[in-house]
Design brief:
The chain has four helices and 34 strands. The protein is mainly β and 711 residues long. The chain has a single domain, classed as Maltoporin, Chain A, CATH 2.40.170.20. The longest helix is centred in the first third of the chain and has 18 residues. The chain is globular and about 75 Å long. The two termini are 49 Å apart.
Length: 711
Amino acid sequence: MYNNTKFKNAAEYLILFSLLCVAGPVNAEHPTSLSEIVVSGEYSGFDKYILNPDLINAPAADSAQLLKKVPGANVNSNGTVTGIAQYRGMYGDRINILVDDIKISSGGPNAMDTPISYIPRAQLENLEVIRGIAPVSSGNETIGGTIRATSTQSSFTKEQQFSLHGEASAGGHSVNSGYDASLLMSLANQNHRMHVSGSRQDSDDYDFGDGEVTPSEHDRNSYEVGYGYKIEDHEFGLEYVRNDTNESGTPALPMDIIFIDADIVRGTYKSRWNHVDITSKVYWSQIDHKMSNFELRLPPLTGGGAGPGTMQRFSLADSEDVGYAIDATMAFAGGKLKLGTDAHLAKHDADIFNPMSATFLVKNYNDIERDVFGVFGEWQRELTSAWEMELGLRYTRVNMDAGKVSATGMAGMMAMNANALATTFNNADLSQEDDNIDVVLKLNHALRKDTNIEIGFARKMRSPTYQERYLWLPLQSTGGLADGNNYIGDINLDSEVAYQFELGLDWRNKRTYFAPRAFYHHVDDYIQGIDATNTIARAFHTMATGMTGSSAKLLQFANVDARLYGIDADFGYHINDFWHVDGAVSYVKGERRDNGDNLYRISPANARLGLTYQRKIWSATVETNAYLEKDDVSGVTNELETAGYALLNIYGNYSIPDSGFTLVAGIDNVFDKNYAPHLGGVNRVRSVDVPVGVRIPGPGINGHINLVYKW
């Protein structure tokens, strides 16, 4: 059913062909406009890659799925709207993700509401990935890089008279009988801007070649109102966002989304004082989250296949964030100096209930506090006419603490073991402080007018997440790891320390571009699961898995030594006035330095190659995405090997002249191939079409259409 070995050769051929395409254009002549070459992303400086959603016609309920277009990036998918960003083998909280320039903590402990999910696809203005080593000014804890998601909002005009603008879209997709609709209306002049927007997304479970993935439906509404005022060199902004995610499946996790209610407020102030540019923001968010293991799926069976009601669970979780960031940019010593300070203060709670037992209550996470404070300085300047330098230093203080935990309503030895674990946890010193220092040095050298090279060195640090430190009972609330194993935390974990090196080339003219990057990350105290030795936790785990017949292992978060290295590149070639080809190749290897085991959930080598025919008012693209087989798997997590595959997509758009309307349509997975995305997670749900414990299959053939109107 899931044997896709036949796709391995196709994937190898595509990756080889992509590399040949890179080499081919070097002797190209007849240059034309560079802006016509880049179809899925926009070149914006040597170290940025900005995805323009208007140039990406494939549908995506989760905006994070667009990261697959970026060289080196990918997505760990636990559900239709639950995509965890991955960049060069690092994912989750290792990546600094900014949503409209603020940080948002997930409302629950399994990252069902990942940060990028707070901007639905229809409201996404752009998605920016800082390629390679992230500057210290881009935020705290950037060991895995920085990604910025920006929503569509109102903008100031240059006129005194107010003007009304807007954008509306509506579309559907066949693979899950889903639809999307959105509306943005803005009113602005040179001093005022205001907008209101909303979107709705809804779908059933999606189909694949041999059946249906259950549950994979989703239901989400998002709303925003905003106002801005600008006078001379001063600009103020205030926005309020409401995001309501309703019943949505996450088959790779122990529970599904019943609701996620989020309120987000952000304020900004920008000004210029005495040749100093000042940017500041302050924000607050409150997220309430309910999960269930029986309302969208069949509950786990108890031992012997009887009594599923005894295993019904739901969880209530919430988070609250407060944060700020202030920076000032000025001329200094022949260059540009940026100084700043920022903070992100987060609180988390999560309780687990049994609806069949009023006495059952597990205080999974209680009064968790994770407060991050940072200061930084970053200096950029030209050293010579051909050399530029960026030097950055950041100090980050991370304070963490937790409240008392408990477990009631259990019986026998399970109750005794749970109480013993709670007592040990409550008697420990739960307050932890980390002092983290990041250093970045990047050198950019212009070899000639159309060719640059960059050399980068960095020391980056990340403190443990609250799950890694404070998970006291063997559970799977692990920030979306979705490996099917139970974990316990370690209060005394050390911060990760990565020593990073990068070498990049950027060659582009008006007809061709080629931008490869090679990187190496030497990571001390990398945090991952290892076999747990706690005898009480192991006894609890044995009884819990025995009740359900689960083969889950018991792991404990620990510091190990690791390394990640690889190469990624994007390229494009303008064949003539109408035809162009573009693509990307990505490879990363992650392994432990202490025992040689592979790191968990890292994508194998993959390539994307697209051929586009472009006219003034319409375009059509044929695109292939290919992945080699995944056989470098994590032994400690019992990660599954998966076969390679290649998919063909066709899409295009047509702009109706002088109307403001654009029609977008396409077909994904044209040949309806059965395949299992390597980062798609393992099925946890009892269903007819997908066995428990196998990799979740990807969507089958999907026809989609979307109509956009802008005025």
